[in-house]
Structure formats: C-alpha cells, structure tokens
Task: structure prediction
Amino acid sequence: MWEYIERNIDRQLEEWKNDPMRKPLLLRGARQVGKSSAVKNFGKKFKYFAEVNFERQKSIKSFFEGDIDVRLIAKKIAGFINVPIEEGNTLLFLDEIQECPEAIMALRFFKEDYPELHVVAAGSLLEFTLQELPTFGVGRIHSLFMYPMTFDEFLRANKEFGLIEMRDEADSHHPLDAAFHEKLVEYFRIYLLVGGMPEAVLAWIKTHDFNQCRSVLEDIVLTYEDDFSKYKKRVNPDLLRITMRGVCHQVGEKLTFRQVSADHQSSQIREALRLLALAGIITPVVATSGNGIPLDAEADEKNMKILFLDPGLLLAVLQLEGGLSQQLVQLIMAGSPQELVNKGGLTEMVAGLEIARNKPSVQRQKMFYWEKKGNSVAEIDYLEIVNLKPTPIEVKSGTQGGMKSLWLFMREKHLTDAIRCSLENFGEFEYIDNQDNDAVRHVRILPLYAISQLS
Result:
C-alpha cells in the first residue's frame, strides 16, 4: 500500500486550495523529491481527483493542440479517464507536463477562462522545457519549489513530535535539557546518512538499515545520470556525470574547475554546472562583498561553492566512486560533534540546504558567502538577510579564537550580530573587539538541528 509522509508543502497546498484568487499551480523541483506524492495526497481533500500523466497517456497531448478551449479540454480529459471534472469538487493534476509543452502554455488559460477549477501541474526536468518556451503565463501561474525533506520533516516522519515541540520552545536564554539535545544530535547524524529523499526516508523508517537506504539512494543517483542525455544536446552526458561527481568531492570548499576535470575548458564545466542547477541537483553559493541589500548586487559568480541536492545522495555518489564515503560515514557515526562540524564539509553543506529550504518556496533561493583574499583567506560560510541586515552565519564549533574571519567581517561591515551554527546547545556570547574601540559583537548559537528557527 502507498505510504505518504507529511511534508511542509502540504500546508501551502491547502492555502492555495482556499485562496479565492488562486492561479493554476506549477510544482517544480528535482526528480523523486516527492512532487507527485504530495499532489496525490492533496487530492484526498477533493471529491474527485483527475490525474493525467503525459508520459503514460501520450494520446491526451492531442487535446491541447490547435485552438485552446480549456473547458472543452477538461471535458475531454474527464471522458477519457472517466473521472468527473467539476469546479470546486475536482483537483485536475497534470503530471510529467514537460512532455507536453502545449499543456504548459495552456495553463494560463485555466486562470483566464476556467478560474474556478483547481489545476496543479508538475514534472521532471521541467525547467529545461520552460526555458525553451517563449512565455508560459508569468503572472497567471503560481510556482512552488519542492526539495528533499528538511530535518524537521525527517523528525516528523520519525514521529518525534514531542522532540520538535521541546526544541521549538528552546532559545538562547533557555537551552534544551541535555537529554533532548543529545537525542537531536543523534537524529541529525542519522539525517546526514539517510538524507531527505522520501524513498530513502521511508526505507529508514521501515528497516532502520543504512544499507537499505544506500541501495535506494544509489538507484536514484543512477536515475539522475540516465537523465543527463535529456538535458541539452550540446553538453556531453559524460561531462555532466564528471561535473556532478567532481562537485561531490568539493563540498564545503570553493569550487575549482581544474579539480572537476582537467580535460575540459572552464566554459564547458560552467555550462554543465548551470544545467545541473536548472535540474535542481546543485545550488551555487556565490561570493559577495556583503555590503548591503540585496546581496546579489555585488555577487561574483566566478567564485562559488556548491550545495549538492541531498546528503544521503552525496554519500551514495562517493560510494559509487569506489567506497570513498567510508571515512566520512565513520566520522558521522563516531566522531565527536566538534569533529563532525569542524572537519566535515558535508555538515556545512547541510546547514546551507537547511537555510535555503526553510525560506519561502515561491522562488528558487539564492545563496551567498563572503571571502577576502590577502596573506590568508578570510571566509564566512553563509550570508543571509536577517532583520533587513546582512548577517554572517558560521558553521563551526569551538572557541571565540577560532572565529577570526567572523570578527574581521563584522568589523569591516560595522555589524553587531552574527549566528554560529554547530552541534552545541542553544546559547549566545559576546566578544569585545579591541581593534574597533571595544565594540561589542553578539553571537547567537543556533544548533544545526534548529536552523528552521533562523528567522
């Protein structure tokens, strides 16, 4: 029997359903992150659920050819799949819509000519099709981006509702009891290994066997690589594969093209990265000077770090490379929390994914970091806008003395507040900056398992 795991997007779908000004909804995101499952579960809220899959039901594409009459199209679909399509009572789901560009173009007319009908569309590699369309109804279609499960979703999948409640009541002035803190740290370790791909999470819940999860994840990686031939004809699928795997070897580091491939030009690798980002497999974290809002006004796209889609998938890629992940797995399972944060680029990557995925999902989020070159490179892991100000976020454990880049950045930008993400308990501390007229810097310690509380 099909099992559904509660997702953050469920609430947004419910809000969309009840919005009198709603537009047709386009659900966007990488393959196998749970888009179709979320819509099918959402379909239970309606009297009728009318599902069209353009990969399986190719003949339905003909309904969208020629002049577009969406009421007539709905009537034809209802007859073809034998499900009533009634405004207010039916959810019409157009799945794998990238296979029918005419249907994407027709979405805008559902808003104009049949606004009472609830219409949701989703697809794999949808972004490539959207790029090739002259317009797909900007302003008449609402998009939501979907990702693998966040750590909070992972906790809910494991039915740890009480643990979430206790965590959400804690803050810098009221840290968690040690027992709750240690339990959350252990769950975070498991999350680093299993990741948030729904099929892998389901395997973990059913078996509690990391090998079962790894088998699922390796299959997903191979599915992604099989897709590479569909991306764009001018980029060799082998280069996409090399680039994806090369990125996985540089998580938490500034990306070096030479390390990705010595046999390809920078422009070729850059195009491969662009396509992997379009497919939702990677997210660039771009360098910026961080002088003000918006952060991308002074971004330097020649300097970037890369977030891979999911920690479990990253370990699966490294495993497929020949067991390279074993040392990292041992660090995750047995290393101290301090080692895990300070030695593991994977932990920094997951922090970035958590920051991005706990933001509104109505657009693809941009991520930034800061660096300053000199005798030694100073770097801040992430810059975010908090309370309308650029706010540095460092992912590390340890002493104030190990945060020289943070003090330098705050001194240069005249900032008083920063955040340290680690596997420490909630807390805060102040630093008196002797090099800046004894200015007081305030640092909030936000555990990695509580990044959803960042805002």
Q: What stands out?
A: The two ends are 38 Å apart (CA to CA). The chain has a mean pLDDT of 92.
